[in-house]
Amino acid sequence: MRARSARAVINSSASHVFDVLRFICAWPAPLGVTDISRQLKLPASTVYRALITLEEADYIRRHRNTPRFELAPTPHLLNRALFSRFELHRASRPHLRSLAQATGETVSLWARLGWFALRVGGAFGSRDVYHRARLGETRLLHDGAAASVILAGLSEADLASYRSFVDTHFPERRPDAGWAAEAGELRLIEARGFATSALRMAPGFDAVAIPVRDETGRPVASITVDGPMLRSGAVALDPRALQARDDLEALVAHDPAAFLSPFAHIPADEILIRTPSASEAETDGAA
C-alpha cells in the first residue's frame, strides 16, 4: 500500500514537471515562478521544484540571469530529431523556399500525425513582417485551415473515427456549430481543393492551405501560404503554390515507402497530444 502511495506521489510530481515544461513551450515570453504558479494553479514551491529539475536537465534556462525562464537547447534538439523522421520534411525544403521567395509570403508544411497536424517545415517570405510560424505547432485535424484540408480528404469511416476521438478525449474542442455543420464545411473544402483562413492584417484576403496526397489520393500533409495569397471568395489558386504541391506529390508517388509517416504503425486513437486551439496558437489569424 505504501509503495503504491509513493508511486502516486512520484507520478504526480513528474506530471507537474511536464505541465510546467509544456506551459513554457507554449508561452511567447520568459516566465517566472509567480506567473506559472498563477496560470497553472499550482503552489509556488511545486513550480519552483519543477523549474529547478528542468533547468538541471537543460530543458530550460534563466533569461539573462533573471529569475525568469525560457527554453534551453534540449527541446529544440528534440524537435529537430522528430522533424527529421519525416522524409517529407527534408524533401520539401527547396520547394518551400522557392515558393516563399517567389511569393514573398511565409510557407509552411504540415504533416499528418494520427488525428493531428504537425508543422514540420517552413520558409519565411521577404514581405513577412508579422507572421512567425512555430515549428512543432500541433492541431487537431478540424482546427484551422492547415489541418482541416487534410481532414477533408479522409474517408467517411475515418471521419466517423475522428469525431469519436474528439468526443472522447477533447469534448471541449468540438466544433461550435456541431459535427453536421463541420461535415458540410469539409465537403466544400474537398470539392474546392483547398482551405482558406481570413487574415486580420489584410482584410479582404485569405491565407491558403493545399493538401498533399499520397499515391492513393489520401492526404498526408498540407502546404500553407500564410500571407494574403487569395482574395476572399476567389476560387483560382496561384499556380506557383499548385506547382509546389505537384512537385511534392510526385516525390511521394515515386517512392511511397520512403515517405510513409514514421508513426503510421501507431493507431491514430493512441496518439494523444495536448494542443491549443488554432485561435489560441495564432497571432494574426492565418492558418
Named at the architecture level, the CATH assignment of the largest domain is 2-Layer Sandwich
How are the strands of the largest sheet arranged?
6-5-4-9-8-7
Indicate the proportion of strand residues: 15-25%
Assigned CATH class of the largest domain: Alpha Beta
Radius of gyration: 20 Å
Q: Tally the structural domains.
A: 2
Low-confidence segments, ≥5 residues, pLDDT <50?
A: 1-11, 282-287
From the spread of the alpha carbons, the general shape counts as globular
Counting DSSP E segments of at least 2 residues, the number of strands comes to 9
**Helical amount:** 40-55%
Computed structural class? alpha+beta
List the helices and strands and how they pair.
Elements: H1 2-26, E1 31-32, H2 33-40, H3 44-56, E2 60-62, E3 68-71, H4 73-83, H5 87-103, E4 107-113, E5 116-123, E6 138-140, H6 145-151, H7 156-169, H8 179-192, E7 195-198, E8 205-213, E9 219-231, H9 239-254, H10 278-281
Antiparallel strand pairs: 1-3, 2-3, 4-5, 4-9, 5-6, 7-8, 8-9
Helix pairs in contact: 1-3, 2-3, 5-9
